[in-house]
Design brief:
1 helix; Jelly Rolls; 48% strand; 5-stranded antiparallel sheet; mainly beta
Amino acid sequence: MGTYSSVTRMGAYEPFDLQIARGQVDGHSIVSIFGYSAAVGSTAQGPLWEGLTLSGGNYVYPSSAAPLVLVSDSATDNTTRSVVINGLDANYNILQETIALNGTTNVTTTNSFLRINSMEMLNSTNTGNITASISSTVYAKIAAGVGQTQMSIYTVPAGYSFYLTYSQFDASIGFTSSNYMISAEWNKFNSGTQSGQITLTHQSTFVQKQEVPFNNSPIAHPEKTDLQFTVKANTGSPFVVSCYQGGYLIKNPD
């Protein structure tokens, strides 16, 4: 199909979101980005993921595509348990691989990954902490007993555009006269006229909860854009913060 049209397909009264979730609209899919950390501080903004520390700071991506080394800190996560890795290859094309674990022994992917968008357990919840690394640098982690990564980062695949329709943050910070959280979305462009630029898309303060619906004006993100949804406290730490960002991934016209 040369043009992917965002119109209803299977009936006038079925919600469009449901049609996309059911795979009934060509070239459309739903993207859900979950982030969580119990180590949010006040030093610098950073995306929510299991590698975040109180010093914060942006997530640093691999400099080039390379095989991932996966390992658990529990021998129970053995060859009966597998991890599905959803990421991108050297050309930002969608890449997925399923790899069987071997407990505390390293296992290496067949494919080379430039980006990791998520990892999840395939057939059982993990007992230990599972990490995915390149040259000893951890780029993704599944916390013990969780079953999937919780990373508020996402990179748009080549040939697609991502449209953000909703953003939510929840924090353990209390209502006082001085404490608040600062949320922000940072984009790094890896194609087009803005290639190499890092842009602060939007920034806001909140206490305990922030909900931002973009349903009537979705925010477009072009192919190969790195997104990081970041947060920090203005003072005090540590705080527990979770977030959810959702939207549509739509294939670009040929």
